[in-house]
Amino acid sequence: MRQAHRYLAPLFLAVALMAPIANTGCAARVRVYDPYHSDYHHWDDDEDRAYRQYLGERHEGYRGFSKLNHDEQHEYWNWRHQHRDADRR
Fold first, then answer.
1. Residue of 41 and 19 predicted with greater confidence
2. CA 52, CA 62: separation in Å to the nearest integer?
3. Which of 12, 30, 65, 74 could bridge to 43 as Cys pair (CB 3.0-4.6 Å)?
4. Structural contact between residues 63 and 75, judged by C-beta atoms closer than 8 angstroms
5. How far, in Å, CA of 42 to CA of 46, rounded?
6. How far apart are CA 43 and CA 40, in angstroms?
7. pLDDT at 29
8. First-to-last C-alpha distance (Å) of the chain
9. How far is CA 13 from each of CA 10, 23, 60, 64, rounded to the nearest angstrom?
10. What residue spans of the chain are helical by DSSP H?
11. pTM of the model
């Protein structure tokens, strides 16, 4: 029984220290700068939904935004500023 306590205490301590880190993984938001309109956008679920809507209207398959060249990113930001409500359900 004494050996079980010897191993359980560090295990509980490790779990207690890791819990806050595990909770923030999905909630992290990335800020993306739009150089064409001189503003920032938070790339969260709403922005991702708007980006997928943009791709759907253009009949294009999904590609990560960071994979687009500068001209394609410029086209998206122009579309995005014309469709401000695209992130609303």
1. 41
2. 7
3. 30
4. no
5. 9
6. 9
7. 74
8. 56
9. 5, 16, 48, 38
10. 2-24, 45-57, 70-82
11. 0.64
* Residue 37 token pair: 């309109």
Half-sphere exposure of 2 (CA within 13 A, CB side): 0
Cβ-in-10-Å burial (0-12, 13-18, 19+) of 58 comes to exposed
- Paired tokens of 76: 């998206």
The total of other beta-carbon atoms located within 10 Å of residue 46's CB is 14
Residue 64's alpha-carbon distances to 4, 46, 47, 68, 73, in angstroms, are: 48, 15, 12, 7, 11
CA torsion sign, 37 to 41 to 43 to 47? negative
Rounded distance between C-alpha atoms, residue 41 and residue 56, angstroms: 20
Distance in angstroms (rounded) separating the CA atoms of residues 35 and 40:
9
pLDDT of residue 85: 75
